[in-house]
């Protein structure tokens, strides 16, 4: 497992209800910073650090999300669904490789995976358009480059 993807704290906070950010259903109790904070706490506890490429990944994700949003809300939501599904799969891979006795990391990665799955469901429920297979494949290839590179940098 890459240190940059290590779980994040000894005990994740209690599950919070999820509402879709920016929707009129009210304020959002979930914030993307939760996962980043949990990750940093866990990395600190393990004496590890995040990838030095994280700022590049964040900028790229923002740019892709912005481009999708310029097309339409449905495309933007479709991008969210695919992103969250791929992240959930990635986290499932970490759960499969984490040592059984690393309960702290397992708890956080599991919570993050659950959150990602809920975010995808929320975006689907909000009217996400299914992205075409070539777009999903390109996203998967980009994610593979990111995760492989982050393992070393």
If you had to describe this structure to a student in words, what would you say it looks like?
This protein has 153 residues and is mostly helical. It is 65% helix and 0% strand. It is globular. It starts with 32 loop residues before the first helix and ends with a helix. Residues 1-30 have low confidence and may be disordered.
Averaged pLDDT: 81
Structural class: mainly alpha
> How much helix, percentage-wise, in residues?
55-70%
Radius of gyration: 16 Å
Number of strands: 0
In short:
This protein has 153 residues and is mainly alpha-helical. It has helices at residues 33-46, 54-71, 73-97, 103-125, 133-152. Mean pLDDT is 81; it is low at 1-30.
Key features of this structure:
153 residues; mainly alpha; 65% helix; 0% strand
What is the element layout, followed by pairings?
Layout: H1 33-46, H2 54-71, H3 73-97, H4 103-125, H5 133-152
Helix pairs in contact: 1-4, 2-3, 3-4
């Amino acid at each position: 497992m890459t240190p940059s993807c290590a779980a994040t704290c000894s005990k994740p906070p209690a599950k919070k209800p999820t509402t879709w950010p920016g929707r009129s259903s009210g304020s959002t109790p979930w914030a993307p910073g939760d996962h980043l904070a949990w990750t940093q706490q866990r990395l600190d506890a393990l004496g590890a650090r995040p990838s030095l490429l994280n700022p590049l990944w964040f900028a790229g994700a923002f740019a892709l999300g912005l481009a999708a949003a310029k097309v339409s809300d449905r495309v933007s939501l479709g991008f969210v669904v695919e992103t969250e599904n791929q992240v959930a799969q990635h986290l499932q891979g970490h759960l499969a490789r984490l040592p059984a006795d690393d309960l702290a990391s397992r708890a956080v990665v599991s919570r993050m995976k659950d959150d990602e799955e809920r975010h995808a469901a929320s975006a689907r429920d909000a009217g996400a358009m299914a992205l075409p297979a070539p777009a999903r494949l390109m996203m998967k290839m980009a994610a593979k480059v990111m995760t492989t590179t982050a393992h070393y940098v």
